[in-house]
Amino acid sequence: MLYRGPEERERPLTAVSSGSDRVSGYGRATLEDGEVVWTRDVVHPSDRERAWNDVQRALGDGGTYDVTYRIVTADEDVRWVRDRGERLGDGTLSGYVEDVTELKEREVRLREELDETFERISDAFFALDPEWRFTYVNDRAAEYLEIDGEGVVGENVWEAFPAALGTDFESEYERAMETQEAVTFTEYFEPLDAYFEVNAYPSETGLSVYFRDVTERVERERRLERYEAIVETVWDGVYALDGEGRFTVANEAYCELLGVEREDVLGRRAADVVGDGIAEGARQFAEEMRRDERESATLSFTIETDDGEKRPVEARLGPFRENGRVGVLRDVSRQRERRQRLRRQRERLSSLVALYDAASDVSSAVIEQTNRSAVEGRVANRLADGPYTGAWVGRTTGTDVTRVASAGEDAPRGTALATRAVDDERVVVAAESDAEGDGGGEAVAVPISYEGGTYGVLVVCAAHRDAFGDAERTVLGRLGTTLGHAIAALDRKAALLSEHVVQVEYRSQAVASELGVPASGDGRFRFERTVAAGDGEYIHYVWVSGLSDEGAVAVFEDAERYRHVRLVGERGDAVLVEATTADAHVTAAIASHGGRLRSLTVRDGEVRVLAEFPQGVDLRTVTGSIREVADDVELVAQQTVARDDAEDERVDAFGDLTERQRAAFESAYYGGYFEWPRDSTAEDLAETMGVSAPTFHQHLRAAERKLLGVYVD
């Protein structure tokens, strides 16, 4: 029956369909003209209040309703109907009513049958409606829960059992209702001191809950879990055999040792798993222990896994009930490896001590040598006589390496390694595929370098692998630096002692950018001297002409690479500027080859570099080093000239100065400290060098004493 009518408690209908006769027995006219009012005359008296309240509640929630109630027909028959509708925009209700009496009667019959079924099932059972109210509780559930089954019907489950709030009972029941999917869980209920296994099945009408007391089973499982946890936590393999020699227990560690799956071990004969000989030996030991002929038994053997890996193991075993036996299998490869590692460590420590001694001897010996060849030969011989089988020293020309001194049996090895060490500018150890020859050992190549210059390479060979660890590489790296320092000092001394030098002139525009000064403009810059102050600091003394005092200083202050800029003095139309940098690439490149920067002038958009080198220097290598700083460097001219300062006394005196003493003396000289009035005070120069004034005075006075001693003595 389709209908429409105002939203009033009596539910008068203003329009109905022809189905009204079949549903209620009343004709359309009777209902439409108000002779018969729906709620007042048709709805069952017992359901009138509830039906109207259900409609109002549903309309308040969503504007539609779906309620079921009883009616009394015109023939005074009681029928069940389902009333579904909605509130229209004009405030009237529109919907339809259908007869669901047969469905209700079937529902009642099913409920009666279910009641009988629920009473027959062995599990405890109760049912909840969507409001969490009990609708049914069977006898077993009432017994478990210690409640009156019929008495709790209609009561809220959380009010009846508040202790269940906050437990899995609450969260799992709610999850089942929300997802409409069955849940299964086991939970402890403290008020009853029992574990329950629960299966809950949701539906639109509520939740059906089946449960049983599984306390004994849970406690038994927990004991078993504790036992298994203990066995599985043991790092060693644990196993047990029955009287027939078949595996009944094998923990994961045991299976991992054998390289097999647990299901492939349980039930199998021990002889099939570990071999007849081992299994028979273990059985005899167990029998002897059972007869008290021995207190313990240990077997040591090697097992081979399915993938071919061999592992040394040790088995401790004993008798078990019913003629079986139990045992613990331990992988002793780590113990053996530890012993081997300790032995290798002792050997390495001994080698490292020998290397320290050799490095110390070499460092002391190179000071006594008067030429480079003697230094190179002494190094090769001392290392080959010490902890290594061979050593050789090579000199570099560009990327080429030429062997100049060698000693030991393995001296021919490591040529490719030496080239790689020079190219990478680092200590390189040969991998197995890199080692030349068939000695099966190891080689290391160490660049011989100092202050950016590379003078050669040292190659050391050992008879075994892993001979060059971090400590060895560190010592050899320092030795390479020591050799570089010694060779650089010899080259510088040779340059100072030589009556003739090679004078070279370069030109470039990129060097100006590297120096941080403009390559063109009004100003002209002549770098008079660059002093190595130590700790990576360099002090530059530059004559600037064509600019004002403020303009000259501003050029260096505006360049990022300079700091501690100050005006030192003036001469004619030029001023002397002192500026400090953290590097001096051009100066370092020249000095790394034993050279000396005589002047560096920036004028008319071009930089001119004038330097002097000892005779015999490889100018191609020198030019290559400078081009790493500025790639447009061009060699303009070279000539051999007589030195203008080749006095032996002066050379010897400067050779006695330390780096700090020489830096203090040169900065004082070029900084105008010896002028009167002084262009710079000791405090000015100390600040530039980054030391205290007393320290600067100490270095300067020591330098003065050594230099004056040449002439006084």
From TrEMBL:
CDD domains: PAS. GO terms for biological process: regulation of DNA-templated transcription. It comes from the Archaea. PROSITE patterns: PAS. Residues 1-26 are annotated as: Disordered. SMART domains: PAS. Residues 110-180, 223-268 form the PAS domain. Residues 1-12 have a biased composition (Basic and acidic residues). Keywords: Transcription, Transcription regulation. It holds the Pfam family GAF_2. InterPro entries: BAT_GAF/HTH-assoc, GAF, GAF-like_dom_sf, HTH_bacterioopsin, PAS, PAS-like_dom_sf, PAS_4, PAS_fold. This is PAS domain-containing protein. It comes from Halarchaeum grantii.
